[in-house]
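Hi, here's the filled form for the chain we discussed.

Project: internal
Contact: R.S.
Residues: 161
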Amino acid sequence: MKALFKVIIIVILVVISICVAFILLQIDSKNTQQEISEHIENTYGSICFKGKVLAIHRIRRDGRTYGIMCVKVDYSNTGSFYRFDETTCLKIQDSIATMPIGFIGEHPIEPNKSILNSEYVEVNMNKTRKMIFYDNKGNTNSKSLYYRNNNLRESDLSLCD
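And the returned structure, exactly as it came back:
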């Protein structure tokens, strides 16, 4: 009987430990996402540009496919800009913007397909904190500012040169 009681106590303690660990991981993840959002706002919040999509490069790393979009800039409030850090990246040089578009998948879902078929993009115009993608049929897709480098390497920013 004592052995059964000990096993029950140990199982209860293990379950409680797992629950506490899960809660702590969720809190840490939420804080990290908030920090990244603040970093994007502070670093990129004043930058806006728009232009024709020249190419979208697919980069496959660690079993996932990510995208880098090359944009021929028609308008920008920033002549040139370069930033690559542990969480974000963007390059604007010689009227070409090189920006991450995130995880696009091997077989993209509908919202990603519309981004991959974009012909024109507006980024943070009028300080909206949005990226608006236009396809050749006039359809639009918008998403929040996204500069996360998601497994990209600094050398990937030279793909649009």
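Let me know if anything looks off before we file it.
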